[in-house]
Amino acid sequence: MKLNSSRTIKQPPARKPTQPLPTEPVELTINALSHDGQGIGRYQGKTAFIANALPGEQVLARLTEEKAKFYTGHTDSIITASSHRTEPACPHYHQCGGCDLQHLENSEQLALKQTQVLEQLERIGNTKPEHIDLPLTGSHWHYRRSARIGINQLFDGEPIVGFRRRSSHLLTQIDSCRVLDKRVSDIFSRVREALRDTGDIKYITQIDVDLGDQGGYLSLRLKKPLNDQHLQIFTALAEHYELSLQLQVIGSDPQVDASGLTRYALDQLELTFRPGDFIQVNAEINQQMVNKACQLLQLKPDDKVLDLFCGLGNFSLPVAAAGAPVTGIEGSLTMVEQAQRNALHNQLQNCQFFCANLADDLKGLQWFRQSYNKVILDPPRTGAASLIPQICRLRPELILYISCNPGALARDSKLLSEQGYQLNNFLVMDMFPQTHHIESMALFVRGKKKAPKKKLFSGKGISR
User: Which keywords appear in this protein's UniProt record, sorted alphabetically (predicted)?
Assistant: First the structure.
């Protein structure tokens, strides 16, 4: 086709030049806390996310980046401090990326987390709970029984053993950790001293520590097998901490001795787990969470419970012990096998476990064709949007949703509401003190499915 040369081609409007960031700190009023623990203020009509700032504070903030709709920055100095501000207990707090709310009182951390989730439920999910239950709380320090520790080496040969820095992939040197279980809280300095002057250690990339009630695992991720000197060092370290040494060379299958698996207790039950299996990091809150779940589900012997993303049986086995038959589903075959062993170990015969990808269509699977009147849903951070329509086709009376992502919970609560489920009970759990991470529990009760809105005018039947 020949172009019309007389036609004027409109040019896009010229883009306004970006204003340079202020070279001096700017004064901001902080009004709220973001989902990742940053203070929220306003600067020149845009939202500003400011690290180490709290709601109610007046701060001088140094802006570090401008995006289309917001600024980012950090607190340079505090003009008016929040009454809830406190001095961080950890000397590594301002460099380490592991904790980001140590400057906020513990009680206020949990209160703000609850407010954040309730706001998202209302704003995104158009949902309000009928009852807000008391939060589950525990120890604020030395609660973490699982951690991933990085290892690297400076140009001068000095080992670095620690966690990633704030907003960086680089490691920060750590001596001890205030949130890690006391049994291993000094592992950083002990490993660093042991590796000093032992040659190249860059082939040792990370240490995973996973603790049971007694003992646990010290797992190394390696680019190649340990040399004799380093094997001797880590064998001695594992013995010192009374942990089982596990070696994982990248690209090869791990070898685990099933006879020496580590255990943790849930009331009278014992659950064993392997290195790399998912466990809740906070044992104290996990016990409370399982008890609360069983309470909200109002378990009876004639119930049929479906536990989705069941893992090792953390919820399934206590439900079965309460007398209700349960079917647990997990995407990892090794964890399904471990859940089966845990049921056998605890002499529970009213539970069964299957491996399935819960992102797939489930209607052809035998276990899905059975009837269930109660469902436990403990999805990963991405939530369960694709799974919820399938669950709702089963029409369970109750759906108990355990969430580690408020945004996913809010989105999924809207989907459940559209299917006729009302949010009856809600609570937050202090699973991750000193951090912005939020764990919450929501009980949805079946009601009437919402009817689709009628169109006022379809446009059909009109003759032109």
Answer: 4Fe-4S, Iron, Iron-sulfur, Metal-binding, Methyltransferase, rRNA processing, S-adenosyl-L-methionine, Transferase
